[in-house]
């Protein structure tokens, strides 16, 4: 094993509180079991470090040249394109290319190197630097290979047992974009660091500041297998807190975009997260990997056809998220289609055209059999009716009617009136408004599916007069989206990544299924963290509602965030959570756990925050939602600036976070104020507490005046 560090920059860095990569690397360098104890004294290593820095400088210059070329093309693109559409398309492509080639001086251009052995049939004796994107020199020779390129796979997967032709794998340590160290594994000599790599350790232990970062430099083999799964493959990842599910999902999106760029650009990639705070936390990861065109949304935003202005009581909300409602809506909608009883008669100048009721019944039956969405079916019937009239005109006049005639006839009063009678236009909002206002209509659609009590839960006591005047709830919005999907199918994304998926209701799963019908999904979650009333208990159910019943459920079991002592404490809750999840093992042996009974909670919290400020990194005070304002005010009174959870770029190091918004986030130092209140605030309060206790990267302090919830004691 070889390790080199630049001693001078290590010394410099150790006085710099922010520069953590190097600091940790420096501290680790002499202590790891597989590490050369006096690395920097080896002159050969110093020369190698200098050569690597020269390669980095050369690569940066080359990237700048590539970007300048793209910018020049962008500037002239509009003039050379033949027409406005081509100009716009070209302009978009080029501006994206310019954005992709952006060079962030604080992010290393490469983080690894592969030296292939002489015996490798494809890359004998070749050396590749692996980085965030391809960089080529002026004659097109690669200076840095994209981490997603086929060759780069060996960087993540090669091992002593299966070296894949690799003789040496080198990992680089950086501080603020400056290359400061490297670490070699000579696989051909049986050397392998695995999770003891000090560069991996430094990355995991670095204090967290600001938004989430990519993990390209240290993706682990079990993660890489998921990241590089085929586009057609849908996968469900069950992983304990901090096992890298979010990281895997985002890197898989980047990988698929690289491999299937054109296809996915047309259909799109969608990332779904639990709330906007979470989305802003992860928003920087894909752009850092050069992917600037990925849509991100919460499920609520995905189905936001109507404004949400009311709240359901819990029983009604639970019922509205029940998959039986899908069938109720389907029946209610198709219940509008009637059997034609009257002929269509159309006067056209001196002619009269007529289609009998039997022929019309056949048209309607046929359109129904085709299984089209309701709205498409209505237009199909209109087109067929016009077609039948056209045939009569052609037979009588021996010439085809004009397009104008066909269009006018389709909109004529007899044809439109017929359609309104047998296949009326229905809006999704209108359908739901009628269904929840009219007991007879609801009973017709739901008679054998919902009990009388359930139907009563859905019916409004005082219906608004119109759909527009209705105060819709969040669950109504999901139902309206379901109805909209029956009227007209939404476009399908090529790939959808769903994070914190354990909280999706069956009806929310269906909303996502409609948007991934022709694509694949990556479902990420942890059954133990399910806090919604309808949270999943078995991934198979969620996958069935998502339309991907055969997707594999793959566990991730190595924890990168939460220190072992904190995991052990949080895991005391697991038996009470009634879920069957594989246990996870923490990679982090460091970290601190402090559980304290206090007499004055607010004062103790302020004191704890003050103490935490002496350390590096972010600090979160997590409390029951209704306690947040009071704690924030107390901190402000004490002269401590606090940020809100949705402001990830905020300068303040302290964030006061309501327990219901902390899912998916992480902070170096977490202070949990009164766990019993968090548990008492909602039916799945213990699950919520499990989420809260697993947010800490380095230190967890639990302050309580009331007794701790039973499972924790
Ligand atoms: N291979 C890795 N190398 C370095 N850091 C990693 C690796 N995998 C995950 N991490 C880090 O571990 C932390 C937790 O990752 P992530 O948020 O993806 O976990 P998660 O499973 O989604 O957690 P949760 O269940 O709480 O949502 C992040 O800081 C992430 O960058």
UniProtKB/TrEMBL annotation:
Boundaries of every UvrD-like helicase ATP-binding domain copy: 218-563
Lineage of the organism: Bacteria, Bacillati, Actinomycetota, Actinomycetes, Micromonosporales
Chain positions recorded as ATP binding sites: 239-246
Protein name as it appears in the record: AAA family ATPase
Segments of skewed composition (Low complexity): 1-32
GTP-binding in keyword set: no
Alphabetized UniProt keyword annotations: ATP-binding, Helicase, Hydrolase, Nucleotide-binding
Segments of this protein annotated with the region Disordered: 1-44
PROSITE patterns with a match to the protein in the record: UVRD_HELICASE_ATP_BIND
